[in-house]
Design a protein that fits this description.
- This protein is of the alpha/beta class.
- About 40% of the residues lie in helices and about 15% in strands.
- Helix 1 crosses helix 8, helix 3 runs parallel beside helix 4 and helix 4 (about 105-135) packs parallel to helix 6 (about 165-185).
- The protein has a single domain (about 1-150, about 165-200, about 225-255), classed as Rossmann fold (3-Layer(aba) Sandwich).
- It has helices at about 20-30, 45-55, 70-85, 105-135, 155, 165-185, 205-215, 230-235, and strands spanning about 10-15, 35-40, 60-65, 90, 135-140, 190-200, 245-250.
Length: about 260
């Protein structure tokens, strides 16, 4: 039974492998025995992470990707297929955060949509074609509970943290239904598409914010860098082969209140 959770002999692509979620996911996926490709616009940062993982005996390789650039997406797809002959899983984790406040210039909104909406569509379209031809594969989208609920103002008041910008809520909400769309489109070819919506993860927030947020969860704490990887590994593995079109909150019970 446990072998069905193993990613041995699976080729997995993870976008954004050096950021808040990505660094922990890189270690978790590689530790589950995947041959892992991490891809981002910052190839130098990716190479550093990949080398750290290889020194620990894991199979991790870095590639350049600008997911808002159609040629960059198709180029990465073609390189992976040429080198490995297939792709077993895709984790859409990369995100750009050009908006910093609700009153940021509209150009920041447009840049966010270019990367986080159009870019996510391009990843599904072109890597979905690979999975469709193979008649197997799993896509895991890293969303956010901020794509499921509105912002809670009381968490931010008096903490010094800025109220969240609207673009993140917009494109993470869209990701949930894009997941359902591609689950339906690709399902007849045995391709699965699911979404994970993490809650708040510790990243140096003020103590008062952490206390308020933790009080709103059933588990009484914020998430950490070991709390997401297990769900991603599960959805990429054969243990979840009858699960598709799901949005799974990984939030300590925050959205179940």
């Amino acid at each position: 039974m446990l072998e069905r959770f193993d990613l041995k002999d699976k080729v997995i692509l993870l976008t954004g492998g050096a950021g808040l979620y990505g660094r922990g996911l890189t270690t978790d996926l590689a530790s589950a025995n995947a041959t892992l490709i991490i891809a981002s616009r910052n190839l130098e940062a990716g190479e550093k992470v990949a080398e750290e993982e290889r020194q620990a005996g894991r199979q991790v390789f870095a590639e350049a990707l600008d997911q808002a650039d159609e040629a960059s997406v198709t180029g990465l797809r073609d390189r992976i297929v040429a080198k490995y002959g297939r792709l077993d899983g895709l984790v859409n984790n990369a995100v750009a955060r050009p908006m910093t406040s609700p009153d940021a210039p509209s150009s920041a909104w447009e840049e966010s949509m270019r990367v986080n909406a159009t870019g996510i569509y391009l990843m599904h379209r072109y890597f979905g074609e690979v999975f469709e031809r193979q008649e197997f594969g799993s896509i895991v989208n890293i969303g956010s509970i901020q794509g499921m609920i509105g912002p809670a103002r009381n968490l931010y008041d008096g903490t010094g943290l800025k109220f969240g910008p609207p673009d993140y809520f917009f494109h993470k909400g869209g990701m949930v239904n894009l997941t359902r769309y591609y689950a339906s489109l690709l399902g007849p070819k045995s391709v699965r598409v699911n979404c994970l919506s993490p809650g708040g993860f510790l990243s140096g927030q003020p103590e008062e914010f952490v206390r308020r947020y933790s009080d709103q969860t059933f588990l009484g704490r914020m998430g950490n860098d070991t709390d997401l990887g297990g769900s991603v590994v599960f959805l990429l593995s054969d243990a979840s082969r009858y699960i598709t079109g799901v949005n799974l909150p990984v939030d300590g019970g925050y959205t179940a209140r």
